């Protein structure tokens, strides 16, 4: 889930990570090979040799842009695809979730949310998180490497689950768009993750519990780790303009502007129709007046 290993026959002493993102220079991976002797390092230092496979909290959480809010009806995968021209690439690498290749307009989405849910179980009191397997990859609190701590990993896993709700599950258009996708088309049925369908294709949840039930999100408080990636998508969508009547109908990023536009279209259309009817009646009146 953190990387996919591969074998490089030309460098048998190197541990190699597969490059699966179609030439995109991921911010998650800084290197794709390491000497096998690096395996003697502590786990978090070894993983850091490949890059920041587990992202940490952003350093600009207090910038003015960080306090922006997004509404699921005005920011969802349906709008990102139809208005923003973005296509999805489903991946098995957790750390690259929500990375966006602006060059090819490709959004990378992790497709196994059950892995996140399995590492987010709480104790019997329901108040404290139980450390999962992935928490064994975290750094000590006083570690100078800026590697993810236990709190960072817990927050990241929860944000991944929450991001599916924002992009798909909490808006009718998002759910409808997800049902047109085939995230596991290259895998046999026994390797499909049913939780992905529940998070993205259902308004209500039965398998997992997510405390956030509202359609509006604060980037800085709801996504302290992933908010930079969501900001990139938000900025891309803001630069796009709807083209054609179909896109104009679907584009509800500004509800006020949407109603204003279609009110003008409706009133103008009615006016043209009445003018046409009046012209026809005048022609008929002239024809009937001729002896």
Please give a structural write-up.
The chain crosses the membrane at residues 257-277. Keywords: Membrane, Transmembrane, Transmembrane helix. The chain has 291 residues and is mainly alpha-helical. It has 2 domains: 5-241, no CATH class; 254-289. It is built from 10 helices and 8 strands. The protein has helices spanning 43-48, 77-82, 113-118, 150-169, 172-178, 194-201, 219-222, 227-238, 244-250, 255-289, and strands spanning 5-6, 14-17, 33-35, 69-71, 87-91, 100-101, 106-110, 216-218. The strands form 3 sheets. Strands 1-2-3 form a 3-stranded antiparallel beta sheet, with no helix packed on it. It has a 3-stranded mixed beta sheet with strand order 5-7-6. β6 (100-101) and β7 form a beta hairpin. α4 (150-169) crosses α6. It is elongated and about 105 Å long.
Task: Write out key terms for the chains shown.
single chain, 291 residues, mainly alpha, 2 domains, three-stranded antiparallel β-sheet, three-stranded mixed β-sheet, 8 strands, 9% strand, elongated, membrane, transmembrane helix, transmembrane
Walk across the major sheet and give the strand order.
1-2-3
How much is the average pLDDT? 86
Number of domains: 2
Give, in order, the helices and strands. EEEHEHEEEHHHHEHHHH
Uncertain runs are none
Oligomer: single chain
Number of helices: 10
Work out the strand percent: 5-15%
**Quick one: biggest sheet?**
3 strands, antiparallel
Class computed from helices, strands and strand pairing: mainly alpha
Measured on Cα atoms, how large is the radius of gyration?
25 Å
The geometry reads as elongated
Helix fraction, binned, reads 25-40%
End-to-end CA span: 88 Å
How many runs of DSSP E, i.e. beta strands?
Answer: 8
């Amino acid at each position: 889930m953190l990387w996919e290993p591969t074998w490089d026959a030309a460098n048998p002493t190197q541990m190699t990570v597969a490059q699966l993102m179609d030439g995109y220079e991921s911010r998650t991976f800084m290197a794709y090979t390491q000497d096998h002797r690096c395996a003697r390092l502590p786990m978090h230092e070894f993983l850091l040799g490949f890059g920041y496979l587990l992202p940490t909290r952003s350093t600009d959480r207090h910038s003015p842009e960080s306090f922006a809010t997004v509404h699921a009806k005005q920011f969802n995968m349906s709008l990102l695809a139809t208005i923003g021209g973005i296509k999805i690439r489903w991946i098995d690498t957790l750390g690259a979730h929500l990375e966006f290749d602006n060059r090819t307009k490709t959004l990378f989405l992790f497709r196994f949310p059950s892995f996140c849910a399995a590492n987010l179980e709480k104790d019997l009191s329901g108040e404290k998180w139980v450390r999962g397997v992935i928490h064994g990859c975290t750094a000590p609190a006083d570690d100078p490497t800026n590697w993810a701590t236990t709190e960072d990993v817990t927050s990241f896993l929860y944000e991944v689950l929450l991001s599916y709700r924002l992009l798909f599950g909490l808006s009718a258009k998002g759910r409808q768009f997800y049902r047109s996708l085939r995230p596991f088309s290259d895998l046999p049925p026994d390797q499909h993750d049913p939780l992905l369908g529940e998070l993205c294709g259902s308004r209500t949840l039965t398998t997992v519990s997510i405390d956030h039930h509202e359609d509006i999100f604060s980037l800085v408080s709801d996504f302290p780790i992933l908010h930079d990636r969501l900001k990139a998508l938000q900025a891309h969508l803001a630069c796009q303009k709807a083209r054609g009547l179909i896109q104009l109908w679907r584009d509800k990023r500004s509800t006020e502007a949407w109603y204003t536009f279609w009110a003008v279209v409706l009133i103008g259309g009615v006016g043209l129709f009445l003018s046409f009817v009046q012209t026809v009646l005048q022609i008929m009146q002239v024809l009937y007046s001729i002896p």
